[in-house]
Amino acid sequence: MRTQPSQSIPPTLFHELFENRTNLFEVKLNHDFTDFAKDRGFGFASFCSPMFAEDIFIPHRIAKRILDSNTSPSAKLWAEVSLKKEGNENRYRIEFIWPHISDVAAKAKPKHIKQTASTIVEFQKSLESYPSSRNTEFAENVYTHGDHLSAAKQQQLQTRLNSIGNPKKGWDLHNTIAYTYAEHHIETWAKEHQLNVVDYNETSLFAPQDYKIDGKDIDVKSVIGVGRRHGTQYSSFSVDNEILVGVCTHTGTLNDDVIELSIDGVFDPQQHSGLDLPLRYLKLRSAPNVCYFSSIERYFLPKTNISVTSISISAALILHSACNGSLPQLFDTCSKEQSEVLLEKLITEQNQPLISTIIELIDKDRIELFAHYLADYVIDKTVQKQVIDTSNIEMLLGCITPIQSRQQQFILDLLQANQTLKLVRCHWHPEETIKEMGIDIYYADTSSVPTLKAVCACNPRLKTTFFTYSWKTNQTLCYRHDDNICDQLNCGCLLHSYRDYKLGNIILGKSSCTKYGKGSYDSWIRAEKYPYPLKHLTLTSTNHLSDIEI
Length: 550
Prior knowledge:
The protein is α+β, with helices and mostly antiparallel strands. It contains 16 helices and 19 strands.
């Protein structure tokens, strides 16, 4: 699995944040500080950021003070740091140190250092009243079939199992159990938060909505993943304005007794009313993907207002908040004008259009919808063949508002499509780059992942797929080289490797491909043989961009 992006500020942005005058930062001593200091009379420290490890020079007088205080290696200290530019290089130097931020606020002599420290202290105090769960993964749980269900929900499950056409059929049985536990998961969450809950299924299993929670009628929609197959499509979606609560379910095997569930959030189309933000691709009346859903806590629970009387947006405050994962809370604290200042420091020039989107969401108190508009932005820029600063967007994930892991992965996959633009070549005319080609976008009924095809400039019927999903696993796939493309004369689908339990390593294409598609796969299973020679293929999963032999 790809690791989730850090919320820390990358070095390139940090250099832009650093002011010409001295500034205040939390630093960490290098492990070899003590020995190095004894030998040379000075040592080195680093900014406290997992993505920024540039050395800071420590003068002898400060190194001696650190050693005299018996500070352990890798200890964190607060330091007044100056920046000196030497050509294209940056030289950092510690001018003064303090053991705690409160000491800086009380004892620092430079006025701007003292003010910065006071702001950080006040911001830290304000976080004490902020619910810790607001910045964590959305509610998750693991259930064992037969356990936990209330008597009423157990009766509903039994009635549903009795009503399906073939209760012994694997998928029907699994699907029924999974979505019943998804409903139970939402009901449990609501009751744990002392919300008023009415289960409409107790009176009618065919009720248009599943629950009334805190006065709102909601319909629970689940995605169902089994083994290597990821769930992406939400169950039985309708196009009216009902409020949806999404739940992701996953089991190791079909009809496995152990079910993992996590809440994707709430999708209420009315939350988008009054926003002057058009959605070009992820429209409200389209089948939702995971990015349509926003925090269930922000939707149902009272909002916590953080009040800081006076706040100055400094590099120190930004870096401190980023390293502690509290940038979303900082945005909650800021005024609209302060948010603009903060965004201008965080967002690079290539992604400047995002600033107006975020400000509109903040101004209308709808920042929890950011994942939806961010995903639409990435798709739009990719279809328009505009390369964006993908590293900057990775950094923004979780910085503006909490974004749960499935949403982050969906957006990271879309970023791969944008990064791939420069690699795409027409399969039939290798001299054609994406600059000469058009782009078509498709959505299938079986996945929420869009399929992107580069359209040949010479013959529009010839299309090279460069971003799509596997019909077998729903894994997102991305073009790397022309050897990823089907060798059928006019197909152009994106190939990927798959390790089948019966056939071993095989190559698959799109579902309708006459050579590598679903029909061919079924015939291979019947014959118990894969008919094509094994070959070298670049693995096109967005999670593992590497080469493998199959």
